Automatic annotation (TrEMBL):
Residues 779-791, 874-885 have a biased composition (Polar residues). Residues 625-646, 762-892, 940-985 are annotated as: Disordered. Keywords: DNA-binding, Isomerase, Metal-binding, Repeat, Topoisomerase, Zinc, Zinc-finger. This is DNA topoisomerase. Its EC number is 5.6.2.1. The keyword Zinc-finger applies.
Amino acid sequence: MLRLAKASITFIRRCPQTRVLASACSANMKYLNVAEKNDAAKTIAGLLSRGSSQRREGYSPYNKIYEFSYNLHGQSIQMIMTSVSGHLLTHEFLPSFRGWHSCSPEDLFDAPVRKNCPEQYEKIKKTLEREVRGCSALIIWTDCDREGENIGYEIIEVCRAVKPQLRVFRAKFSEITAPSIKRAIENLVQPDARQNDAVNVRSELDLRIGAAFTRFQTLRLQKSFPQDISNNLVSYGSCQIPTLGFVAQRYKEIENFIPQTFWKIKLTHTIDELTVEFHWSRNRLFDKQCCEAYLMLCQTNPTAKVVNVTQKPKNKWRPTPMDTVELEKLGSRKLKMNAKQVMTIAEKLYTQGIISYPRTETNMFTGDMKLAPLVQAQVASDQWGSFAEKVLQWGVNPRNGKKSDQAHPPIHPTKLPTNLSGDEWRVYELIARHFLACVSRDATGSETIVNVVVAEEEEFTASGLCIHERNYLEVYPYDRWNAKEIHSYQVGHTFEPTELGLHEGSTTAPNMLTEADLIALMEKHGIGTDATHAEHINTIKERGYIGERDRGFLVPGTLGMGLVEGYEMMELRLAHPELRAGLEADLKLVCEGRKNPNDVLAEQIAKYKEVYRIMSQKARALDRAMGQRLNQTPQEPPPDSGASAATATGSALMREVCKCPKCGHKMCLRTKRDSSGYYLGCVAFPECRNNIWFDDSMREINVLDDTCARCGSKKMTVKFRSVRFYALLQSTDMDEYQFCIVCDDKFRNLFNINESSVRVAAGARSSSNTTAVPVAQPARSSTSTWGTGNQSERRPANTAHNTTSSGIGRSNSSAGSSSSWGTGQSTSNNWGGSQSSNRGGGSSTTTWGKPANNRADGPAKKGGGFGDAGGAKQNSWHNPSNSSRVGIGDEDGEVMCRCGTPASRFTVKKDGPNKGRPFFSCPNQASSCGFFKWGDENMPPASSNNGGTGGGSVSWGSGGVSNSGSSWGRSSNDTTSKTSRTTRKCGLCRQEGHTKNKCPQRGESTDF
């Protein structure tokens, strides 16, 4: 109690110091602010500091740093303002998939991707990492749209990698003006993770889809048309190709258009040089004789009688507030500038604080937005200042549209600049005049419509227009509304037509698309967003898919037209908007939280993967379509269509075998760089460096389509350079050996392959686990003991109470024999295996493999394999009292396989050293457990070479079958070998004086 009282007193005494420390911390708080571009950072810093910010250099010469103090919520904070240059990180494939010949294009749909900082932005990243170290919070000032939100999260990722506990805030603003920026910093919010997710999905899909189809098309067409397309990149983009499709469709409509001749009756009435033309109610007829009959009827009584005169008010509506699509269309039509150029200038004006954010889907002003000050700012203009005064007198009255993105207002001027010129001034003028027009009044007038009848049957109509007030037209020269004068007609009045005759004409093809028309189609069909329309059009221009003619008309190029027609011949709707429009709709649902981004990603990949499969099957149709446009006959492509071009090199052998136990990505079979051998590597390299290098004794390795019934991994076949390895693996087929790298312990142990490289290490399992399946190797005892040793522990191999072995493998032991399998400590150091048998009642030890990584986890002792062969306690995965006796004859003398059923008996009929030998294997061919046992292994030998009642050792090596007592290596029963050091022998020919890498028999094979 006394101690507690003292502690309380101490706490009370320290409280004033804590408050002082907190106050000092508040006084020294430092926030890092990051904008999307340097111009924006400079302007925002100037507005927040009222022009007192201090500039210094960052690592990037294009992204400066601005420092100033700011009082936020009553606390003085040291602000550090800097910027990025758009996206800081980008999605990319891992290095093993970046080469065009590194894999099949189809593999790119599932290949691992990562976000990485491109080299040109490393200095920006370095600046952020340096500056954030001394800051307690981060404020994101990027553009307030999807892409800006994603850029913000990229900045957060970089900064939190340095400072994980960093607080993050988001500034929301629509224009870079003092009131807007002050409002944003006083009302900081959290970043929008949903918008970030949507952009990540879109970005990853664009990478996968674009790379897969681009590689396929390019490699295919380059081989089919080496003269015309040998140096062309035939790219694919899920937005670019539908955009090309719109241009190609209009071009084909014009190309296939057949003009038709038509006839119509023309009636005019002229008084004092004013001619009024009346339009026939039937408009036009495509039958000349029929039209002539109507004309003859009219000419029998050509007097025209006025039957109706209608006068009504007529207004020309002012435009709705400007959104991004309208800005792009008006810039193309009225300013004759391409959409990308218009948007580039608009973004520059925005970062200078002259206009509001130019990427918006909103065309309506909210009721709480104060528009009068914005109009007042335009009064000082020499060109439209007087009209701005009129608007203020009338009262600001915007004509609103129906769209809103709930993020930004329509595009409008924020101030009147004095230093603009050229195209920048033209774009600003368009925005300012459009804004004043939309908040003013409609133009008003009246329309007169006159209806006359000729020959009491045929009706004709004429109209006139009188303008009363031009209103918005005074400031908006981009619209035209011309008065149309007409005579004064009264009902019942008659007159003789000045002209009454037959007029011949013909139908005309539609005009080719302009950029404005194309943008309108893209918006209508949901291709891209308002922020990306200009980029997509510019991309297909740069690719040569479309070109621009006089007056801004767009026409498809030869390559673009060939692609579109090729897709149609393959019956693929890639050039139509449905696929991409579906993605854009899903991304909106992701932003609204109504759809999971992972689900969208998986669904879209599945759709395009199916399209790719069809394309690869029907690729010849693409060749034919392109050949028709190029006026060439395509060369005969490789047998495997487009994908074969990608897999033409040896490095492209990249077939999935199993899943990597380290990271979960694919483990694929590949050839070495010098094509001298094979290895199994994780596709996530270099992030994951798990791999298996196969021994040089393997001449050829292939991956089969069949999967292992036990683990689901792909089976493989191997052809060895020497037949001795078939014997070591106890294979009946001396041409090739089929195996599963995950389940075949014999293969892994023989070639010292670590089990943890292909599956979770057995050492991670409990020693009492009784569910493990033994490997397909005949057991010589009634008890199967399996080691599950933790390799991080160094223990003796044969301690009486050791329940954890030093390796991964199996030890079969009985009263008089011990059999050790695995990759841990063994009783013999030779790599071909050592087998000695004392069948007369002595001990028997069989050792396969060599120590993994040449480690010695404990002293080498007789019987000390990978399970505990001796002692009272055994590390068994099967209860000895009820374990099945695999490979051991039952009471009836039957040999049981690991499935628990009697094994089938066969005889080797193929020529070779094993011809005539009996063997047992699993009878279940469809789901084999892999059991194998020689039928003559337990037969008593003819003579004894080991003394006592034991028998000789059977050796299956390069020398064939031998009963002389010689073995593959040193016998574990040889007492001399325990005390003397033997000379190292070759792993292939078993001769002394060299290793297998320098063996003269290397690469030779007696049986191939």
